[in-house]
Amino acid sequence: MSSPIWSVDEHLDDILEAVRPLEPIELQLPDAQGCVLVEDVMVEIALPPFDNSSMDGYAVRVADLEGAGEEFPAVLTVIGDIAAGGPGLAPGQSVGPGQAARIMTGAPLPPGAEAVVPVEWTDGGTGGGPAHTMRAHSGAPEGASGVVRVHRPVEARAHVRARGSDVRPGDVALRAGAIIGPPQIGLLAAIGRSTVKVHPRPRVVVLSTGSELVQPGEQLTDGRIYDSNSYALTAAARDAGAIAYRVGAVTDDAETLRATIEDQLIRADILVTTGGVSVGAYDVVKEALSSVGDEDEPGSGIDFRTLAMQPGKPQGFGSIGPEHTPLLALPGNPVSSYVSFELFVRPAIRALMGLKDVRRPTVRATLETGKALTSPAGKRQFLRGSYDDEAGTVTPVGGSGSHLIAALAQADALIVLPEDVTSAEPGTETEVILLR
């Protein structure tokens, strides 16, 4: 009796139904990068926490600068310096009529001041001496540090960053479901949070199988090829947001493969194999994992399937080990394995992260090609393509062969030809999966 043929959607739905977000944990901010927030983060302090200057300049009263210009500048007595994080003016001291305080960016606005004039609007200040214009006061307070000439007027609150103008206590800083990136870490630190509760980044172990595989940098001998799949899939797992570990290629021996997989379970939230899943005599993944289910662990085991898709027809999915760690077994041809990763593994990783939208974005685009594209009846075909966002077009890259990895390196999209389409003429509108 022949095995049933699975559709792409049925296989993916089965995977996503079995994969659940990882249990939340509390992480320090640097360790939370790339993770998904599981609860709203509320603001407990105002940001900025006080009125402060957005410029290097002078804190002043607006009335003292009315009518100021290049010919008749306002001359103010400088009563002190206020540096960011410094002590500021003396206790009880404030900016009074005819006075100014030299202020640095980020320093608190002193009492009595209503605005800040940038240093570029002044003569930079002079050291000591009484003011000699009608705007100068006859006496300078104790601690005065000269005078400053201001060449233009200023409006109230100019160059002042108001307390709470960014966020206020009680605001929601970040919503549950947000991905913690550099700006989010900056905001959390700014409001005083040192830890957050998140779904951790999933740990993905990638291993390739095949006695013919040689690691890059080693010498090739007859009949051997370099192991590219494990490198590409490990990079793809990291790109999806996971912590990825690459295992060197395992030879075509079922016991060795089974032992290797069991050894990797301790550091895996999901396992990905590539190669050995079709019907060949040396397809060791099927041999090693077909009977891996434990009688004491109902539901464990790997189901090997035939999918109505090209490339990537043979697939395997299930769970292994006492923790029911998900395992996805992908084909060994480079394009087949990468397309399979994008369609099935990446969504599984994103689901483990706790994300709601786990699939790559899709668009409709006009097919630009010199000849019609063909596709086998009853199969969903995924062809490599180059997408032009401005023109709304997609152009095939390379042929349909599942070994053409050079063409894959030039592609930034997958052209989707549905099961009921056997030919797509130039100018046809088609679905496109965006890869980058």
- Which class best fits the helix and strand makeup? alpha/beta
Strand order of the largest sheet: 1-19-21-22-18-14-17
Termini separation comes to: 42 Å
How would the global form be characterised? Answer: elongated
Profile the largest sheet. Answer: 7 strands, mixed
What is the count of β-strands?
29
Strand content: 25-35%
| Unreliable segments of 5+ consecutive residues | 128-143
Using only C-alpha atoms, the radius of gyration works out to 33 Å
The average pLDDT score comes to: 90
Oligomeric status: single chain
Number of helices: 8
Helix proportion: 10-25%
In short:
The protein is α/β, with parallel strands linked by helices and 436 residues long. It is built from eight helices and 29 strands. It is elongated.
Explained architecture:
- The structure is a single chain.
- With 436 residues, the chain is an alpha/beta fold.
- Helices cover 18% and strands 29% of the residues.
- It has 8 helices and 29 strands.
- The strands form 8 sheets. It has a 7-stranded mixed sheet, with helices on both faces. It has a 5-stranded mixed sheet with strand order 9-6-8-7-10, with no helix packed on it.
- The longest helix has 20 residues.
- The two termini are 42 Å apart.
- About 4% of the residues have low confidence.
